[in-house]
Specification:
The complex is a heterodimer of chains A (114) and B (610). Chain A contains four helices and no strands. Chain A is an all-alpha fold. In chain A, helix 2 runs antiparallel to helix 3 (54-76). Chain A is flat. Chain B has a single domain, classed as Cytochrome c oxidase-like, subunit I domain (Cytochrome C Oxidase, Chain A, Up-down Bundle), CATH 1.20.210.10. The chains are: A mainly alpha (114), B mainly alpha (610). Chain A binds chain B through residues 86, 90, 93-94, 96-97, 100-101, 104-105, 107-109, 113-114, and chain B through 176, 200, 203-204, 234, 236-237, 240, 244, 288, 291-292, 295, 303, 307.
Chain lengths: 114, 610
């Protein structure tokens, strides 16, 4: 059975250093969260508003999406923390392999047929 | 009598339910050897058909089925599982682990591979084997031109591919998380390193095959359209997807073989591997570049001179890290006390043979010249030189090297040397002349050739060579049979790496106490320090082991049944089959299984006996 984390956990005494670290972590989480909501709003506006042409809106929201993915992975899913070197290495190598591959396929097959 | 019956029954049950990496490794080896013999038989039939011009030994249709199944069987069902068998047995021992990271998944990977392989080969009995070549290019493989054989191909490879992917991920996690204390990445034996890189290639390459096979499956079975040109599709998509998988696949095969050679050459030269870190980085670079060159299989498709030039240069770049490896092997044996055992003979024979294949590879990479070579026997000669000269020699070297550890007895060296020389001679006799057949213009994948075109003699010679290889292989089987009483000691070759620190036969838990690796070639280091045993990281205690499970077998049978439903468009059967598999997954998720402990007394008993 799942242990009840709220009651069974012994009381932990945190050092000053660890407290500061946790506070900083929390601040990072909140800032990222706000930034991501802001990005989502921007994306929504750029699509909904008639003032912004589609030729700008499409690459714009794609860039926003890419940034959001990075923020998600590094801040919310702790990829920036210690002991995440292997996931980092494998995700990076995956990206490094896939970018030239997709680029080549788009050039060789054409975006429409791809 | 009833007692012995009960015993045999429980042994069968034991093998069906085992999650022990050593037993799974042995099952991979046995199944792989079976498919290797099958693929070899197909090769013999091909060569007999081509022995004489305008021969009618097999029909053109049967010939197409034979070449397709020979390629598919040899790559997916023989070479890969044989390497997986060695990796399964040896890698956990080399890193000082008790098992792989996910023993259940390991077993699932094997049974998926086996059911996929059996499914693929059942096509022989149900309406003919696939006949579109091992690459299954559309439109040859689309519903208009290919019969149900191709459905067996698509579904069989899909299932066995899932097994391979599971196995690859398992090795990655095992090597990352389960190394013995002290064994940093840069102290791992090279076979473990190359298995690691090959597993990473599996992780990135197999999804491309999965996607391609799914597209082909939906097009053939459910009337979707991706490839048919008349309906707005593009046949080249399949070629790209297949080769994005297919090119890394050849490195998945050859890198573990490189690892085997590195172990064998350094053991039998009594020297540490020359340029260890250069070897590791060359392996990584080969793995990376392997993904950047797939289009060199498609130079004549019409990609244009720019794309051809880029892929040609990228392909030639692979010769650099491979050359680094070749020179490192040469410098490893340089000045060493070389012992010419059968394993070492295969490793030494590999170097010139593989270089020949590598040189023709660079010739083929020259995209302008490739228009001349494309689809001729020159290509056939090239890839048989790299795959037999690299992978198969590696497998045979590994077989003779690790046989005492895996099966507990020594293979006969005299017979082994006969086997080596016959195989080497037959191999070069078969394939060296095929270079010239190709340059004379003999096209590959064609069931016959006309008399009086100057192709007769070389084809006859080639077939004679194939018979030499067949005799050599039979000699190996004889060897396995006649040497079965020659019991092996734990460390017959004066080995350097941790697998030779285990007793033979290897106990279920591998190491009674987890060893500490203090240097590269950990066991050799301790030998040189005058230590009789490896230093250990823990006191002798109970050992926690995983429970066996029959679920992987049932899950694989479920997918096997579901495939028949898809092939014959009887979807309730598919639902039943998928239901069995999903049901097993639910059982696995819900049922708690904490494994069991081997008590310390039992381990102590083993130690006294060993």
């Amino acid at each position: 059975m799942e242990p009840n984390l709220n009651t069974n956990q012994p009381k932990v005494n945190l050092s000053q250093k660890e407290k500061i670290k946790l506070e900083r972590e929390m601040r990072h989480q909140i800032i990222t969260f706000v930034v991501m909501i802001f990005f989502t709003v921007l994306a929504f506006i750029s699509v909904a508003s008639d003032l912004i042409p589609a030729s700008f809106a499409v690459p714009f929201i794609l860039i926003l999406a890419a940034v959001q993915v990075i923020l998600q992975l590094y801040y919310f899913m702790h990829l920036k923390d210690k002991d995440h070197e292997w996931p980092n290495a494998f995700m990076l190598s995956g990206i490094v392999i896939i970018i030239p591959m997709v680029a080549a396929l788009m050039l060789l097959l054409g975006v429409v047929k791809f | 009598m009833s007692n012995s019956q009960a015993l045999t029954k429980s042994a069968l049950w034991d093998w069906l339910t085992t999650v022990d990496h050593k037993k799974i490794g042995i099952m991979y080896l046995v199944a792989g050897a079976f498919f290797f013999a099958l693929g070899g038989l197909e090769a013999m039939l091909i060569r007999i058909q081509l022995m004489f011009p305008e021969s009618n030994f097999v029909s053109a249709q049967a010939f197409n089925e034979l070449i397709t199944m020979h390629g598919t069987t040899m790559i997916f069902l023989a070479a890969m599982p044989l390497l997986f068998g060695l990796m399964n047995f040896i890698v956990p021992l080399q890193i000082g682990a008790r098992d792989v990271a996910f023993p259940f998944l390991n077993s699932l990977g094997f049974w998926l591979f086996l059911s996929g392989g059996i499914l693929l080969n059942l096509s022989w009995f149900f309406g003919g084997a696939p006949d579109a070549g091992w690459t299954a290019y559309v439109p040859l493989s689309s519903a208009e031109y290919a019969s149900t054989g191709l459905d067996y191909y698509v579904l069989g490879l899909q299932i066995s591919g899932a097994g391979t992917l599971i196995g690859g991920i398992n090795f990655l996690v095992t090597i990352i998380t389960m190394r013995a204390p002290g064994m940093t990445m840069m102290k791992m034996p090279l076979f473990t390193w190359s298995s690691f890189v090959a597993s990473a290639l599996i992780l990135f390459a197999f999804p491309a095959l999965t996607v391609g096979l799914f597209l082909l499956m939906f097009e053939r079975l459910f009337g979707a359209n991706y490839f048919i040109v008349e309906a707005g599709g593009n046949v080249v998509i399949w070629q790209h997807l297949f080769w994005i998988f297919g090119h890394p696949e050849v490195y998945i095969l050859v890198l573990p073989a490189f690892g085997i050679f590195s172990e064998v050459l350094s053991t039998f030269s009594k020297k540490r591997l020359f340029g260890y870190s250069a070897m590791v980085f060359a392996t990584l670079i080969i793995g990376f570049l392997g993904f950047m060159v797939w289009a060199h299989h498609m130079f004549t498709v019409g990609m244009g001179p720019v794309a051809n030039a880029i892929f040609a240069v990228a392909t030639m770049a692979i010769a650099v890290p491979t050359g680094i490896k070749i020179f490192n092997w040469l410098l490893t044996i340089w000045g060493g006390r070389i012992k010419f055992t059968t394993a070492n003979l295969f490793a030494l024979g590999f170097i010139p043979s593989f270089v020949l294949g590598g040189v023709t590879g660079v010739m083929l990479a020259t995209s302008a010249a490739n228009y001349q070579f494309h689809d001729t026997y020159f290509v056939v000669a090239h890839f048989h030189y790299v795959i037999i000269g690299g992978v198969v020699f590696g497998l045979f070297a590994g077989t003779f090297y690790w046989w005492p550890k895996i099966f507990g007895y020594m293979l006969n060296e005299t017979l082994g040397k006969w086997f080596f020389w016959l195989f080497l001679f037959g191999f070069h006799l078969t394939f060296f002349v095929q270079h010239f057949l190709g340059l004379m213009g003999m096209p590959r994948r064609v069931a016959s050739y006309l008399d009086g075109q100057g192709l007769n003699d070389l084809n006859f010679i080639s077939t004679i060579g194939a018979f030499f290889m067949a005799v050599a292989f039979i000699l190996l089987l004889v060897n396995i049979f006649v040497s079965r009483n020659d019991k092996a000691v734990a460390d017959p070759w004066d080995g350097r790496t941790l697998e030779w620190a285990t007793p033979t036969p290897v106990p279920e838990y591998n190491f009674a106490q987890t060893p500490v690796a203090r240097e590269l070639d950990a066991l050799w280091y301790e030998k040189m320090q005058g230590n009789k045993k490896m230093p250990v990281a823990e006191p002798l205690g109970d050992i926690h082991m995983p429970n066996g499970s029959i679920l992987p077998v049932i899950m694989s049978i479920g997918l096997f049944i579901a495939s028949f439903g898809f092939i014959y468009h009887t979807y309730w059967i598919s639902v039943v089959g998928l239901g069995i598999t999903l049901g097993c997954m639910v059982v696995r998720s819900v049922k708690e299984d904490h494994g069991y402990h081997i008590p310390v007394e039992e381990i102590q008993q083993d130690k006294e006996v060993g």
